[in-house]
Amino acid sequence: MSRIRADQLVNRAGSGGPKFPHGVAEGFSVSGVVTATSYRGDGSQLTGIDASSLKDGSNVKVQATNTGANVTGNVSATGNVSAVDVTASGNVSAVNATFSGDLTVNGTTTTIDTAVTSVDSLSLDGNITIGSTVHAPDFTDGGSTKAITIGTTGDALLITHSSGQGLGYFGYEAGGDRLVVACDGGSGGNKIDFITDAGTTSGGSTDNLNGKVPKMRITAAGNVGIGTDNPGDKLDVQNAGNCFVNIKSTDNSGRIALGAHTNENRIKSADSGNGAKALKIFTGTSSDTGITINASNNIGINSTAPAGALDVGGNVFPAADNTHDLGSASKRWANIYTGDLNLSNEGSANDVDGTWGQYTIQEGEDDLFLINRRTGKKYKFNLTEVD
Asked: pLDDT for 31-76, tens place per residue?
């Protein structure tokens, strides 16, 4: 066996290392450091090298596992990166990302500063916490209706106060076929307010609603207040000045106004041009009976076309027997037009002999007759013709 002992091996020109074009049969055994521009071969015979990791000095940056690879630090790629599963304990940054499978975030997603332009469906099993404003654009786009849908078969939208002191509910009850707006403050004094002057801050967000006077309120008792936040009746409408409630037909052919004007209460019936219209008050389903006030302000009781100030289509009775007068000493009727005149003071006594009677005065062609209804006796007035 031949042996070469040398401190240095160089090529013939002394400008570099020697070449071994046919290789080295037994190989090299080097106890120091081997520095080379490149290695050739599959590297299967290299020893002392951790082929399962990539290091920066002694720091492992990429460690192979039986399921993939763990990367410590940042991964930068100018092309596409395809992976079945990606698990990272640090930050993952990308210009574009496409997931054909599931995206699982176990921690807190603190910042999503982008526009989500196309989402076919988004399914959330847990809670969503939003600390700022949620903006929904137009609900129509190119004639195609869009909407925000919360819930599928159950309730809909619940809005809770941050302190947990109350919640609002807006949803559709399929079983009852109804849209529900409700609230529950837990105190029994629940109410729903409609406010038109909520106000905005310089940033455009709605400011604190505390102290805002509602234009309409529905209380826990079911009372509705318009212009008042403390309705005392099922419908309570108030205003600082004149206050009217208008009910009119869509073609403006009729209009009725109820309200308070200055120091009086009013019920006004008119058409769209405020022209007088008949006002009818009746019970049941027939408008032919009841009370009618026509355009001339004539009042008809059981009379739909009153010809005078008061037109009564039936008998008129005092509330109590023999206690009320028709007219007075200072308010006398000019004329009384009647058929037979029936007189009776039954239940009392006259001022002459203290008895009572019941008489009827009837007219004849030439005479005037008096009939005593108690005895049946008939009398004729002695009439003397005068010029």
From this structure: 767 777 777 766 666 666 666 777 877 788 888 888 777 877 777 7
- Of 252, 277, 302, the residue at which a domain comes to its end is 277
As a whole number of angstroms, the distance between CA 376 and CA 23 comes to 164
Domain contains 88: no
Q: Give yes or no for a contact between 171 and 177, defined as CB atoms under 8 angstroms apart.
A: no
The rounded distance, in Å, linking the Cα atoms of 50 and 64 is: 10
From 251, 277, 303, the end of a domain falls on: 277
Handedness of CA 220, 221, 223, 225 (dihedral sign): negative
Contacts 24+ apart (CB under 8 A), 210-219: 217/191, 217/192, 217/193, 218/191, 218/192, 219/191
**Where are the alpha helices (H) located in the chain, listed in sequence order?**
none
pTM of the model: 0.50
Query: Torsion over CA of 158, 162, 166 and 171, rounded to 10 degrees?
Result: -10
List, for residues 163-195, the tens digit of each pLDDT value. 555 677 777 776 677 778 888 776 667 888 888
CA distance 89 to 72: 8
Decide if 243 contacts 267 (C-beta within 8 A). Answer: no
